[in-house]
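Hey, resending since the last one bounced:
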Amino acid sequence: MLVGRRAELLELDTFLAECASNKARTVILEAPVGCGKSELLGIVATNAAEKGAVVLRATAMRSESALPLGVMRQLMDSPSLPAEAGRRLRTLLDEDEATVDPNAADRTAPARAARMQKVCAALHEVVRTRLVLIGVDDLQHVDATSLQYLLYLSGRSRSTRLMMIFTETVHYQQGVPTYRTEFLRQPHVQRMRLHCLDRRATAELLTPALAEATLDYYFSVTGGNPLLLRALQEDHLLTPASTAQSEVADPVAGDAFAHAVLTCVDRSGPAAAEVADGLAILGEASTVEALSRL
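The structure tokens again:
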């Protein structure tokens, strides 16, 4: 259930409708870990597919960020891509990978530029007859070669029926820090930020309805982060009935909540882990100034 994201979903659906009129759009959907970026992208992708669009999806992984063309290969293996176009695009990627020479980047750059033109032309053949949605999760982990292709496609597709949506974790130190600037220089690229839920949306997410004191506790402990909220609620539901009844205003934070917190820290990048270490050391003596000095 998508809660507190109606405005963003409406805006993305509007962009999708505009793309059908040859007004391409690229959206960088950024948010903290656990705030519903992937869920929102999934809903937009489903809506697009129901309208007859070709949907190409990929998920970048930190462990595969050094694998050249990993994300591009995921996209071109999407089952909704027309068979002939898929074969052509995969062949071009094979040619690129076969000629990569890390010790002669200057000599191979012109050949890659020529192949990017061919990949773009092949994809534009599909876009001529159908709307195409490219959705990539975790842009911060996309390999450098795939980033080059995605930047090229975005920049050369402004008057086409192509929509691109990339999710990205805020504050994560990027492997290729210049790509964000290159994307945002393009006039049809837009950033969209998802925030944690407010108190009202928190109440909507947590069903059945909670007592005000319990709702206050959930909101203060999680900051409105949907992942943490669901984990805390799961722990509370697993708490023995006698304990839960005696601590209605103070739900138990157990294994699910601890795992969710660690997931948030791990997926937010090295800087977040350092902050978490500092908070653990300083405890109640923690302030922004003390944490910065540490």
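Strands lie at 25-31, 54-59, 132-137, 162-169, 189-193.

Sorry for the duplicate.
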